[in-house]
Design goal:
mainly alpha, Na+/H+ antiporter like fold, Na+/solute_symporter_sf, Put_Na-Bile_cotransptr, transmembrane helix, membrane, transmembrane
Length: about 325
């Protein structure tokens, strides 16, 4: 009997690692001195992660392609304006749909910067404007280090999640300060970091897994799985799906109404609809101390949903592109 490999085609292996970490934390949570060590290791890993990203990222690469200012403006508006507005509107219309902690996590999703690797990869597969995607995704992450904490002060505080000045400072110290340090040391260590991409990937994935383990350990100690049931998880998944669908539909309509080319449309849709798990979990770890386990669920769910949806959409864009090329070749012959 053949194995149904198609079932695993769109499953992110990293999500499997995250779910495994959740299971470990559920059965063997860190507590006492172990929890203190887990938190310390998490903070150190996050600082190292952003330091290495700072050392790797070329400022010229982040600023390249500035001539596509209309495209970048639409992507940034989606990432930091449209997303939060849609999230706030959903909360205002259906405040009782989810518990406050889950709504806090959903609103956190809306203010995160775009991903880099996934945005560029899907744009490339679909036949989009890859140089513009590199510029938009990189600049989004740079801007997000400052904008996300500032937006959190407005979006989350308006919905019952307290955000003090000390919290913003902690976020900036954990992520922006190491990133700036990496940028300053880039002339000396940048080439070394770039040559060792596997190290960066290991730190990237490892820091997220540490955050998940520490967060769910705190959650288990506080009775996490007694705070959320299957029906709430299903409603959360539907909210994430609806949020992604609304944004992608609006971006598609806007890019066509504004006269963008098909490659530019692809870049706008993929870069403007992604949210970064790597940035979201460290911020959630600071913002939602005490009930972070519930708050990171929307971020993790959105991450997997966006990968599955965009993988399917990228293949459809690529198929249409191949069909158009074939039709053009046939007409010319």
């Amino acid at each position: 009997m053949r194995r149904p490999l198609w079932l695993f085609r769109y499953i992110d292996p990293f999500l499997v690692a995250i779910l495994t970490t959740v299971a470990i934390a559920s059965f063997a949570p860190a507590h006492g001195e172990g929890a203190v060590l887990a938190d310390a290791a998490t903070n150190a890993a996050v600082a190292l992660l952003f330091f290495l990203h700072g050392a790797k990222l070329s400022p010229s690469a982040a600023l390249a392609g500035a001539r596509h200012w209309r495209l970048h403006g639409l992507v940034f508006s989606s990432t930091f304006i449209l997303f939060p507005l849609v999230g706030l509107a959903a909360h205002a219309l259906m405040p009782q749909l989810l518990p406050a902690s889950l709504w806090g996590g959903v609103l956190l999703v809306t203010i995160l910067p775009s991903t880099v690797q996934a945005s560029i990869a899907f744009t490339s597969v679909a036949g989009g404007n890859v140089p513009a995607a590199i510029c938009s995704a990189s600049a989004s992450n740079l801007m997000g280090l400052v904008l996300t904490p500032l937006l959190a002060g407005f979006v989350l505080s308006q919905r019952g999640v307290g955000l003090s000045g000390d919290t913003v400072v902690n976020i900036l110290l954990q992520m922006l300060a190491p990133f700036v340090a990496g940028q300053l040391l880039r002339p000396w260590i940048g080439s070394l970091v770039s040559r060792n991409a596997r190290l960066l990937k290991f730190v990237d994935y490892g820091s997220i897994l540490l955050i998940v383990y520490a967060a769910f350990s705190h959650g288990m100690v506080n009775g996490l799985w007694h705070q959320v049931d299957a029906a709430e998880l299903l409603r959360l998944a539907l909210v994430d799906v609806a949020l992604l669908a609304i944004i992608m539909a609006l971006l598609t309509i806007a890019s066509r109404r504004l006269g963008f080319s098909r490659p530019d449309e692809i870049t706008i849709v993929f870069c403007g609809s992604k949210k970064s798990l790597a940035t979201g979990l460290p911020i959630a770890n600071v913002l939602f101390a005490g009930h972070v386990g519930l708050a990171i669920l929307p971020v993790m769910l959105f991450h997997q949903i966006q990968l599955m949806v965009c993988a399917t959409l990228a293949k459809r864009y690529a198929a249409r592109r191949s069909m158009a090329v074939l039709e053009t070749a046939t007409a010319a012959s």
